[in-house]
Structure formats: C-alpha cells, structure tokens
Amino acid sequence: MASGTALIYDEEMTTHRLLWSDPVCDIEVPERLSFSYEQLKCYHLLERCVHVPAREGSEEEILLVHSSEYLEVAKSTQTMNEEELKKVSGNYDAFFFHPNTYRCARLAVGATLQLVDAVMSGKVCNGMALVRPPGHHSQRNAANGFCLFNNVAIAAEYAKLKYGLQRILIVDWDVHHGQGTQYIFEEDPSVLYFSWHRYEHQEFWPSLRESDYDAVGLGKGKGFNINLPWNKVGMGNSDYLAAFFHVLLPVAFEFDPEMVIVSSGYDSGIGDPEGQMNATPEVFAHLTRFLMQLANGKLCIILEGGYHLKSLSESICMTVKTLLGDPVPQITGEMAPCLSAVESIQNVRAAHKPYWKWLTYEGNCFSFLKQIFLLLKDAKGNDFFSAVLGVILPVAYSYQPNLTVIAVGPNRSLGISGISLLCALLQGVAESRIFAVIEVRSSAKLWYFKVSGTELKSNSSTCSMNCFQGAQ
C-alpha cells in the first residue's frame, strides 16, 4: 500500500504579481505561497513530506479543458508591456496578467498533474500542491476571479484519460463558488462536484443564479453538482462539520470515488477579508481526515484562495499535518450549526434526495434516532453508516469526549473493514484517543484491525482487541 505525503511547490509561481493599482485584485499576492511555505518549514513539516518537483503543464493538457483560442490569448501576454497587459486583463472579471503569468499558470497545472501522478502511481498516498494562480473560477474561454487555467478540472480530465477513472469527487471548500468547475462538469456523471460558498441570496460574488442549492447539474449530470450556499457571514466550525455530516459525506460514500481532489481555498477560514467566516484552522484538519477515508486514501489537495496570511498558512499546516497522519486537534466551543446553515443544508438535501438514497433519511433528530435504533439492530453496511454520519458523529462532536470507546460484539455484519472505517471516522473527537474492544468468534480466519496506523491481529477463537491512539 502506498504511503507518504507529497508536497509540491515552485518558487517561480511567486513571480506572478499585479503591476498596477487595482483594489479588486491587490489581495492576490505572491506572499500567499512564500509565507505558507515558510510556515510549513517552521513546523518541521517540509522534511516529513515527499518532495515532488513541479513541471509545466503541456498545451495538450491545458486543452483538455480550455479552448485553443483562449490558450493563444494567454500565450500572447508573455511579450506584452504593462499597458497592453492592463488592457487584456480588463477583458476578464477580476484578473490581472504579468509577463510571467502564463509560465506560472502552466507550472500550476503541471504541479497539480504531478500530484495526481504521484498518488495514482502509488509513489505517495496523498499530497498537497501549493500553486498560483488558482483555478476554480476559470472557464473554457475566460479567465475569472484570479484564475487563468482550471487546475483541478484539468486534473480530473487528465486522471480519467490516463488512469481510466470513472468516479472522481471534487470538493471545493473555497469561500467562493467555483463556477468554472461547475460549468465544465455539470453534464458529467463521472465527476461529483461539491461546493460550499458565501452566497447571501446571490448578493456575493460571483452572484450567479446557478450557484444556489437547486443547481443540481444538467442532463446525465443531474445530482452530481452540489451547491451549498451560505446566506450569511460568520459560519464556523459547527456549520462546516454539519455540511460534511449531512450532505457531503453521505453522498460521497454512496458515490464511492476512485480519487478525491480538493479545491482548497482557505478564504473560508477565520480572519479572511473575502469570506468573513469564523472557521478555525483546526477544522480543516477534521475535513481532511474525513476525506482521507474515501478512495482508499487517494487524496489530492490543490490550493485555491486564502488572503489572510496567518489564517491561510496555519490552515495549510493543519491540512498537511493531517495528511501525514498526525492526530487531529480537538475542536471546542459551540457545536450546534446556526439556523441559516441548517436551512441551507435542508434545502440541499431536499434538492438532491431524488438522486442519492443516503439523503432519504429525515433531517430532524427524533426521526434520525428512531431510524438509528432500527439500523443498529440490523447493522447493515450502508444503512448503518448513514446513521453514523447522521447521528453518531454530530452527537460525538457536540459532546466533546476525552476518550472514545467502541465495543463490537461477535454478531455483526459490518466486517473488520467496516469497523476500521467507523474508528477512522471517530478519530476527530477526543484527539484520536480511541479504545476499541472487538469480540471475535472465528477459528478459521485471521482477523486484522487497524486504527490510525496501529495494526492488531488475532487468530484466537474468542478475543478482545484494544488500541489506544494518541493517549499520553
């Protein structure tokens, strides 16, 4: 099995910079990369990662998503003077060109594809690419919102073509809607796209009707485009976790992706001037940990936005630490989502209920509890885990225990792999301190049980398996 975490960074991507005054674009600065890289160094995370060099994305790779006419426009900017650059930049919404922008954008594409190759080839299990310019707003024929080429969309098409993947999950936790990615895949059932974003009833940029919860995809892609609009600022850890528990994770486990790609914008974090949200860096460790349970851990995280340097860099470090397998820090404080978040989550579930059976469970607590008792009685695979996501995880995060105890009797139908997944999902509480007791009645099988890297095995007819992870 693959192991290790890749980190991809090239200092040249910091040469893309604004040459004139523009209050819309002046927050997209080179220090977003260099400051974050230095913070990784301060936490001694760089030395723990597998360093994979960036490369330029080829024209053929860029054309997997973008038109040849658009590519030629981007290429032509390399020899322009400042006035010419300013003029061509004005043709697009919130974008600026520098003579080295085309080169940087090709490096961003190539770095993303290098990460896909490293993960899919088994060189590493997961990884992160620190790139700029970002990509998720970029459309087939247009730069948009600081984005020239859609790095993540190109990566998905590349993975389908080179590795024959049929199910790719893209999770966009940037605070802006990645409309470029949505447009590219809205008719494609092989790509499940999830985006939460500040929306404020269409008042926040990009202010599109198709960013609302009822934009579910088109044609064969219906149900594979999930928009969760935040209609007020100040969303915090509890709101983000609720979105994962009640929307993303149920659908993602049912979709069963072969690879997960994250459009990882940290402008959804606390302190960012764009998002104005209150989610702390620790929550990104938890979100990352959940996504690591999908696609056999094949997880590629690609930087998008993030404009408060301290919040950005701390959130990146939390993400990388989690990819490396470190215990996730416990989240404290109020864990009930706000009413606005609940309303958005309920709207999304209702819009997508026709397409995903794991969303058919009712959203109120009493109905959930009634169903969980029935499901736990039968303990049937998928039904059981929909109950886990809908009740056990929210309750566990609200209770904030110091220790998680999991007791499993011999009369079960989950299997060892299911029990291992249950333990992995619960590692976000109690700082990964888990005590698991499993009674096994089998003389013919050798049972293996793994909790956060600790493997236990027994061939006795009746035994108990105990594991403490992260206990002092």
TrEMBL record:
Matches recorded under InterPro entries: HDACs, His_deacetylse_dom, His_deacetylse_dom_sf, Ureohydrolase_dom_sf
Record-level GO cellular component terms: nucleus
GO MF term list: deacetylase activity; hydrolase activity
Keyword Phosphoprotein: no
UniProt-listed SUPFAM superfamilies: Arginase/deacetylase
Main location: nucleus
Compartment annotation: Nucleus
GO biological process: epigenetic regulation of gene expression
Keywords carried by this UniProt record: Hydrolase, Nucleus
CDD domains linked to this entry: HDAC10
Cleaved signal peptide residues: none
The keyword Hydrolase appears for this protein: yes
UniProt superkingdom: Eukaryota
Histone deacetylase domain: residues covered: 28-323
Family to which the UniProt record says this protein belongs: Belongs to the histone deacetylase family. HD type 2 subfamily.
Name of the protein in question: Histone deacetylase 10
Organism: Amazona collaria
